[in-house]
């Protein structure tokens, strides 16, 4: 072989090796892709610490009120692909079903993976609690925001007493602990340092009192020296069991709430359909936007869903990647979602994205 040919061959080999090495390099990005979905009305299996396979219903209620549905309400997830090389990142980048984002967005440098996991687990638990409160309210069980203690010599001493139910702030109804904090924050912003009028149920009487709200160390607005808790009856014995699912975050709140209502309602709210959805929910039933919806619609369709309940603020993102055969239903509240399910059962068209 002539010297020039050898040089060209060696150059080609070297370029190939360098290219392969470059493509094999780990990148500071992660890919977000469709994750598994779970039927909140169904039974799932997991292997416990002893190696035994356990079967668990996600949502249960007392036998006297519990009902079964032919359809499904599937919560959806996003799978994070970490420690990827350049070649894999390029594949994810050109795929419509994945999003490639800087790794620090998912794993901030100032937090360990354990800390992030703990935060996700706490949000997961909070979403279940808020969902239960919202579901019970939809079932007719109102929340009483009740004073459990008042510190002596605090600015609230004598103005409030243990057992008071706070029904309104400056005339605006208090429907949850979250709503109380929101109304107090609005009052502080409107008239800093000024007292606010509170409507109270006290010993079967309606009274009015005034207290100046303060900012708590966590940034929230509070009544100084006062502890409150939401009191709500649960005549259904609703229970959520998620052990072994290995899911975190707040985005399953809407589906949790719908599954709880469905579980104790004689009518099959799904109408026999496979329905998926997402959205963070608060105690008043408001549905907020979440991340990864473009990937979640793909996972929903793959697991048989024909309807996807979509937070209104996520509609544009969901529409950009919606698979054929999946209808995006737009919801702002739990009541919206329930009304949309009713429309579907009756053959009507709900509000869509």
UniProtKB/TrEMBL annotation:
Record key words, sorted: Hydrolase, Protease, Serine protease
GO MF term set: ATP binding; ATP-dependent peptidase activity; serine-type endopeptidase activity
Its EC number(s): 3.4.21.53
UniProt xrefs under Gene3D superfamilies: 2.30.42.10, 3.30.230.10
Highest taxon above the source species: Bacteria
Catalytic residues (UniProt): 251, 296
Example GO biological process: proteolysis
Domain Lon proteolytic: 246-344
Alphabetized InterPro entries for the sequence: Lon_proteolytic, Lon_Prtase, PDZ, PDZ_sf, Ribosomal_Su5_D2-typ_SF, Ribsml_uS5_D2-typ_fold_subgr
Protein name: endopeptidase La
Organism listed in the record: Stackebrandtia endophytica
Organism lineage string: Bacteria, Bacillati, Actinomycetota, Actinomycetes, Glycomycetales
């Amino acid at each position: 072989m002539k010297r020039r040919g050898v040089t060209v061959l060696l150059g080609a080999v070297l370029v190939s090796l360098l290219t392969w090495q470059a493509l094999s390099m780990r990148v500071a990005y992660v890919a977000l892709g469709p994750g598994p979905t779970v039927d909140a009305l169904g039974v799932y299996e997991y292997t416990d610490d002893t190696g035994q396979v356990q079967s668990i219903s996600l949502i249960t209620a007392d036998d006297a009120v519990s009902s079964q549905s032919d359809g499904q309400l599937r919560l959806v997830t996003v799978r994070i692909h970490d420690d990827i090389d350049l070649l894999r990142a390029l594949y994810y980048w050109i795929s419509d079903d994945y999003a490639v984002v800087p790794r620090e967005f998912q794993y901030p440098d100032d937090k360990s993976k354990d800390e992030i996991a703990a935060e996700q687990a706490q949000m997961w638990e909070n979403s279940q609690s808020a969902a239960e409160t919202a579901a019970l309210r939809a079932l007719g069980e109102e929340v009483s925001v009740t004073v459990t203690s008042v510190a002596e010599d605090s600015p609230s001493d004598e103005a409030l007493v243990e057992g008071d139910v706070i029904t309104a702030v400056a005339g605006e109804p208090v429907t949850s602990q979250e709503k109380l904090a929101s109304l107090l924050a609005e009052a502080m912003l409107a008239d800093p340092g000024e007292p606010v009028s509170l409507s109270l149920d006290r010993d079967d009487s309606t009274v009015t009192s005034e207290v100046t709200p303060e900012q708590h160390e966590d940034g929230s607005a509070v009544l100084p020296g006062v502890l409150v808790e939401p009191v709500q009856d649960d005549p259904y014995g609703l229970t959520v069991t998620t052990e072994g699912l290995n899911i975190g975050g707040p985005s399953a709140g809407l589906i949790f709430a719908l599954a709880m209502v469905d579980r104790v309602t004689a009518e099959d709210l799904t109408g026999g359909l496979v329905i998926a959805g997402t959205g963070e929910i608060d105690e008043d039933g408001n549905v907020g936007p979440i991340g990864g919806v473009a990937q979640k619609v793909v996972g929903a369709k793959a697991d048989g869903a024909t309807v996807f309940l979509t937070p209104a603020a996520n509609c544009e993102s969901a529409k950009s990647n919606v698979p054929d055969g999946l209808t995006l239903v737009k919801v702002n509240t739990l009541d919206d979602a329930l009304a949309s399910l009713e429309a579907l059962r009756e053959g009507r068209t709900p509000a869509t994205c």
